[in-house]
Write a structure and sequence with these properties.
single chain, about 350 residues, mainly alpha, 18 helices, globular
């Protein structure tokens, strides 16, 4: 009994679930913070400032010159470009969706889309097998999201806001899968996050000059500070460290913690009401998160996990993150052949380089 308890505790401490969940909780504050600030600044301009400042700060702590060079090697450069494009699309579309549809609805639509996209991308790109537990937990979580979408007092949702939320969710789902793909190609995922965010900020920055109104307001500056430092710099740091140890499908489902956080904050701080269907949806969503996250902790200790420990902690370099990611794939039990696929991908990357 003591040995089993010790193994479980070790998996929780060293696994990828806690940092990914922590990042999801931070990202869940984005929508409520935008509405609570009451700023008149353009959401897209706010997003551009968030990416520029957040990407710069994150890069100070994680990016190294050697790591940055790995992002543009022949096996990784195209995945890096995709990462930049989907990061820009996510930031621009999500904040605009929040402005149109409200924090709870926009977050629910966005992150209800993520696990479906990550599951499909993980299967197509990385050969991940979608376990029964993941499928069950994802169905529960998406069902909860659907119930959260039911308006508490009647009315209808903003169609454009919902569409933008769907685009944002699909973009973030692709980002998760691309991050794992970069690690398998030998890129330093610790450097990939700030590079993606900063380059995406530069890509969206013309909007700052086109719509500068309200950006100098104290409320807008406070909002940019929170979004850049807490939800971007710290959030992406936690996410990058955690995602290397779990499958893309699991990471996508864990991201559903964000609408749960947004809903709770909406009730507590914004006076939003949660009807009976919304309450049932929150419970169902939480149950799905528990179902997906618990197996990863219990089964993360076998031989593959011990190999990952020998390889070193994730996030300290491209090789470490890649080895940890492949170790998790064997240990977590979600895709039995991922270890062999990861080794083959790394071998191919070295040959291409």
């Amino acid at each position: 009994m003591t040995s089993t308890t010790g193994k479980l505790g070790h998996a929780v401490r060293d696994g990828g679930v806690p940092p990914v969940l922590a990042a999801a909780f931070l990202w869940g504050t984005v929508g409520p913070a935008e509405i609570l600030s009451g700023t008149s600044a353009s959401p897209v301009a706010i997003g551009a400032c968030r990416m520029l400042l957040g990407g710069f700060v994150l890069g100070l702590f994680t990016a190294r010159r050697a790591g940055i060079r790995t992002l543009w090697q022949r096996g990784a450069r195209w995945w890096m470009l995709v990462s930049i494009l989907v990061t820009a699309a996510f930031q621009a579309c999500f904040l605009e969706a929040v402005s149109r549809s409200g924090a709870a609805l926009a977050t629910a639509v966005t992150f209800g889309t993520v696990p479906v996209v990550t599951g499909m991308c993980g299967r197509a790109l990385n050969g991940e097998r979608l376990s029964g537990r993941w499928s069950c937990g994802t169905v529960c979580a998406i069902g909860g999201i659907t119930l959260l979408l039911v308006p508490a007092g009647g009315g209808s949702a903003d169609g454009v806001g919902v569409l933008l939320g769907l685009i944002a969710g699909a973009s973030f789902g692709v980002y998760i899968s691309v991050t794992k793909r970069l690690g398998e190609r030998g890129a330093d995922t610790a450097a990939a996050a700030p590079a993606s965010v900063l380059c995406a900020g530069i890509l969206v920055s013309p909007w700052v000059f086109a719509r500068p109104d309200g950006l100098a307001e104290p409320r807008a500056l406070a909002l940019v500070g929170w979004l850049a430092l807490a939800t971007t710099a710290l959030g992406y740091l936690l996410f990058t460290r955690g995602v290397a140890r779990i499958s893309g499908a699991t990471a996508g489902t864990l991201s559903l913690a964000e609408p749960l956080v947004a809903t709770v904050l909406g009730i507590a701080l914004l006076g939003e009401r949660l009807g009976p269907s919304g309450a049932a949806g929150a419970v169902l969503l939480l149950g799905g998160l528990v179902l997906v996250s618990a197996p990863a902790r219990r089964r993360g200790r076998p031989a593959g996990h011990r190999e990952a420990e020998a390889a070193g902690p994730p996030g300290d370099g491209g090789g470490h993150a890649s080895r940890a990611g492949s170790g998790e794939g064997r240990g977590a039990g979600t895709e039995s052949g991922e270890g062999h696929a990861s080794r083959a991908a790394r071998t191919g990357a070295r040959e291409e380089a």
